[in-house]
Amino acid sequence: MRHYETIFIVHPELSEEDTAACVEKFRGLLEKDGAFIVKEDHWGRRRLAYTVKKQTKGYFVLVEYGATGEAVDELERNFKIDEQVIRYLTVKIADSFDEEAMAQRKAEAEAAKAAGTPPPSEPDEVDDRDDDDDDDDDDDRDDHRGGRRRRDDDDDED
Amino acid sequence: MITLKRRKYGRRKVCRFCADSSITIDYKEPRTLRYYTTERGKIIPRRISGCCAKHQRELTLAIKRARHIALLPFSAQGSN
């Protein structure tokens, strides 16, 4: 068992139920291969930095889990087949996976979630993120000349 | 002599991640990474950013991962 983390982007034009079903499908796939899921985080619909499969937005899902290499292979094979998933990335966090420690962490996270106020409604969060991204784009445009100047400096030093 | 002079007036750059251990390099945080890319989306070289070799390596990897999952642009052209 190794400790992995996978981010995948679900097609933004799917309905909420379809998105949930899609995520459910991959979660089931992992669990079938004996994976232990530590965390599942839905970032929601976010703007992409560039278009992927002609889409400018995407529904990001982050899953942290412990699994064997074969389970990851199988998961990625299914990502490739499924057209609802437009991009994915798996990163190995650690070579060993301590199931007990992770189970404890998971329980704590769930307890905190249950005790604290429920997370704020998601649409608001998503809107905030979009705004930030837009700001960044504006900066890009304003600072264009600055960027060029800096690159010229580079050339001189070379 | 020139180098001496330059050293006298130049500001010594310190690696931000060495100076402050609370900042982590994570490909899931495009906001931190954006600081280390140019407006066009290129990774800023070590001689400009002032990062130490270890952290520059981590940064490069994080930026490349972030690019792959469309959190950072490969290239930004004009009002893209």
Tags for this model:
heterodimer; A: 158 residues; alpha+beta; B: 80 residues; mainly alpha; 5 helices
Topology, element by element:
The complex is a heterodimer of chains A (158) and B (80).
Chain A: E1 2-10, H1 16-32, E2 36-52, E3 55-67, H2 69-81, E4 85-94, H3 99-115, H4 122-142, H5 144-157
Antiparallel strand pairs in A: 1-3, 1-4, 2-3
Chain B: H1 2-9, H2 16-19, H3 30-34, H4 46-49, H5 53-68
Could you describe the 3D structure shown?
The complex is a heterodimer of chains A (158) and B (80). In chain A, strand 2 (36-52) and strand 3 form a beta hairpin. With 158 residues, chain A is an alpha+beta fold. A 4-stranded antiparallel sheet of chain A has the order 2-3-1-4. Chain A has helices at residues 16-32, 69-81, 99-115, 122-142, 144-157, and strands spanning 2-10, 36-52, 55-67, 85-94. By secondary structure, chain B is mainly α. In chain B, 46% of the residues lie in helices and 0% in strands. Chain B has 5 helices and no strands. The model of chain B has no long low-confidence stretch (mean pLDDT 84). Chain A binds chain B through residues 7, 9, 48-50, 52, 58, 60, 62, 87-89, 91, 132, 136-137, 139-141, 143-144, 146-147, 150-151, 154, 157, and chain B through 27-28, 30-31, 34, 38-40, 45, 47-48, 65, 67-74, 76, 78-80. Chain B: Part of the 30S ribosomal subunit. Forms a tight heterodimer with protein bS6. Chain B: It comes from Desulfoferula mesophila.
Mean pLDDT, all residues of chain A: 78
Backbone shape of chain B: globular
Kindly state the number of beta strands of chain A.
4
Strand residues, percent of chain A: 25-35%
On the 0 to 100 scale, the average pLDDT of chain B is 84
Largest interface: A-B, 27 and 24 residues
In N-to-C order, the SSE pattern of chain A is EHEEHEHHH
Distance between the termini of chain B: 46 Å
What's the number of helices of chain A?
5
**Total count of helical runs of at least 4 residues of chain B:** 5
Rg measurement of chain A, Å: 20 Å
